[in-house]
Amino acid sequence: MATILDRLREALAPDYHVEQELAKGGMGIVFRAREVLLDRPVAIKVIRPELATARAADKFLREARILANLRHPNVVPVHRAGEADGFFYYVMEFIEGNTLADRLQHGPLRHSEALKLGRDLLDALETVHSVGVVHRDIKPSNILLIDGRAVLTDFGIAKPSVDPSTLTASPGRVVGTVGYMPPEQAFGWEVTSRTDLFAAAAVIYEAYTGRRWGDQMPDRRPDWSGIPGSVAPILRRALTWQPDERWPDAASFRRKLWKTRTRRYRRRTFLLTAGGLVAGAVAAILVSGSDRREDTDAAILPFEAATGIDSAWAQRLTELAEQSLGRSMTLTGWHEAEEFWRSRGS
Predict the structure, then answer these.
(1) Cα 61 to the center of its chain, rounded Å
(2) Catalytic residues, which ones?
(3) Is the pLDDT of residue 107 over 80?
(4) pTM of the model
(5) If you compute the radius of gyration of the chain from its CA atoms, what whole number of angstroms results?
(6) What is the DSSP string of 156-192?
(7) Which terminus in the chain has less CB density within 10 A, N or C?
(8) So what's the pLDDT on residue 309?
(9) Which residues pair with 21 in a beta bridge?
């Protein structure tokens, strides 16, 4: 008996040479293939034959249309859709890479990687939501990682978004993945773009910590260890149970999250500038006194942090000044300073 792979090969020849199965989901199967005319690898998604009803075909075609109308580097593009010998299919760009779920099996991402992932994911969702679509299945296995870029895939259960003001409490069929869906989705109520923001925050949380957000809710208090202090309140707002208390849109969420990266650069710039000024001042003293005294001594007393300034900055200023001058000249306190100058007859 011919397999699905054999039948698909025959159905799509001679335009495509179907090579192997890549993944299988609830409704569809994805195959790797080669587009013969352009000689390029592609991914072809088909509805599982046993589920190929008229309603399923309509949903499948809607998914293809959604993707075909999205032009974004963080969303997998669709080239073509059709039906051949009973197979409903669409052709996507082939992206060779692991999923975020695969990557997280080796532990959480570094801070910079998690931040970049969050930016890419929210950037993609900003475009998705701008055309009135809610993904409804944001999770690590639906995010591909390729050359440091996150690409959102699998719009199989995506649907048009609704106005938050029209939300109802009438339960319907629950669609999505447990552990990543907020209450309104879990109870089968209407979803909005803020539903995706909750799921995106859960994914970002998992990228930072290696822990699934859904595994600790609602019985236990959330564990924020592993999340930078500047990032935690941003994720906390996106993960609130009430949709209207979350970020208003993906763009606001993304801008606030990405802005956290600039804080350490501002701190580094301050330290380098201040350290350079201190070193320059000491160097000027040494140079100006060189014509009066052949052996001039100088020392840097430890800086004290003023109110509202991280105490670590003071220590770094001293270290940077030393590095700039190329010599160690730090004293640990005023009593040592007095001994320093007394030993030199000052």
Answers:
(1) 29
(2) 137
(3) yes
(4) 0.70
(5) 29
(6) TT-EE---GGG---------S-TTT--HHHHTT----
(7) N
(8) 45
(9) 31
Q: Is the bond leading into 49 cis (omega within 30 degrees of zero)? A: no
DSSP conformation class of 306: P
CB-based burial label for 206 (10 Å; 0-12, 13-18, 19+): buried
* The amino acid at 164: P
* pLDDT of 170 higher than 60: no
What the block records as the tokens of 337 is 């300073």
Q: How far lies 326's CA from each of 83, 135, 287, in Å?
A: 73, 57, 15
Short-list 92, 96, 143, CA closest to 116 = 143
Question: CA-to-CA distance for 297 and 65, rounded, in angstroms?
Answer: 76
Place of tokens 């020392």: 299
Compute CA distances 123 → 150, 201, 268, 301, whole Å: 10, 13, 27, 48
Q: Is 44 exposed, middle or buried (0-12, 13-18, 19+ CB in 10 A)?
A: buried
User: Which range is least confidently modeled, 16-20, 306-310, 334-338?
Assistant: 306-310
**Cα 260 from Cα 118, distance rounded (Å):** 12
Average pLDDT of every residue of the chain: 80
3-state secondary structure of 147: coil
| Phi, psi angles (nearest 5°) of residue 160 | -60, 140
Rounded to 5 degrees, what angle do the CA atoms 154, 156, 161 make?
A: 105
Mean pLDDT of 276-300: 52
